[in-house]
């Protein structure tokens, strides 16, 4: 069954591989980029199945226009993939506040802006699937990438809330968490600064590793695209899906370490409660809103 897709950041990397796969599978696509001319080859090859739109994800007007294009051309939207993003490497101390804001604006607020533009369309349909690109850095703080990790952790929290709300109107949400993939993300898309010697063991090491890793990452963008096509066909997709053996290993190790730390400090955590006899009988011992 043909689906109507929109992909942010369609011009390169996983976004480009996914755009090719979506069209190759017979679906229709709103392909977006800050420079739509980079998508002209898709139009030449796939004709009416693809429409292109200028989309700076930080611009709400661009996001609204792209959604109107989906409705006007295809009658709605079945799958939104918030893929656009970037991340530089530098220490917290040496990353300027403007650089922090720009990365968080693109990676977090860009996701929020485009998602909010899509929600009314999907609510009216009572159907849809929103796929949010986080990262292994959205589950584990990545040294040298504080703005990127801060943004991706924000995407994770935002998307957890979104999933619970969207479930009430028949819309699915999945957070994908890629590890290293052979895309431009580790090359020209990234500014790599080794920084001052005090942080070399983590920040300098991260910059050097990324330079050496570029072109040798274990992740295949074409295989990731096929997984995302499969994901979009599922009636009950996962809330989170790591992509790649490296992401799976890192997340498993981090989750285990968190559980061990939680258990080690359990008594201190519990010591903050009122004595049991002082609690109101109809109130839970802890509230998520507290």
3D structure, described in words:
The protein is α/β, with parallel strands linked by helices. It has a single domain, classed as Rossmann fold, CATH 3.40.50.720. It has nine helices and seven strands. The protein has a seven-stranded parallel sheet with strand order 3-2-1-4-5-6-7, with helices on both faces. Strand 4, helix 4 (97-125) and strand 5 (128-133) form a beta-alpha-beta unit. Helix 1 (13-24) packs across helix 7, helix 3 packs parallel to helix 4 and helix 4 (97-125) packs parallel to helix 5 (146-166). The radius of gyration is 21 Å and the shape is globular.
Which class best fits the helix and strand makeup? alpha/beta
CATH fold-type name: Rossmann fold
Largest sheet: 7 strands, parallel
- Write the CATH homologous superfamily: NAD(P)-binding Rossmann-like Domain
What order do the helices and strands follow? Answer: EHEHEHEHEHEHHEHH
The share of residues in extended strands comes to 5-15%
Total number of domains: 1
As a whole number of angstroms, the C-alpha radius of gyration is: 21 Å
DSSP E strands, number? 7
Enumerate the spans where pLDDT stays under 50 for 5 or more consecutive residues.
none
What is the share of helical residues?
40-55%
Overall spatial form:
globular
The end-to-end span amounts to 45 Å
Query: Which CATH architecture is right?
Result: 3-Layer(aba) Sandwich
* Average residue pLDDT: 92
The number of helices is: 9
The strand order across the widest sheet is 3-2-1-4-5-6-7
The first-level CATH class is given as Alpha Beta
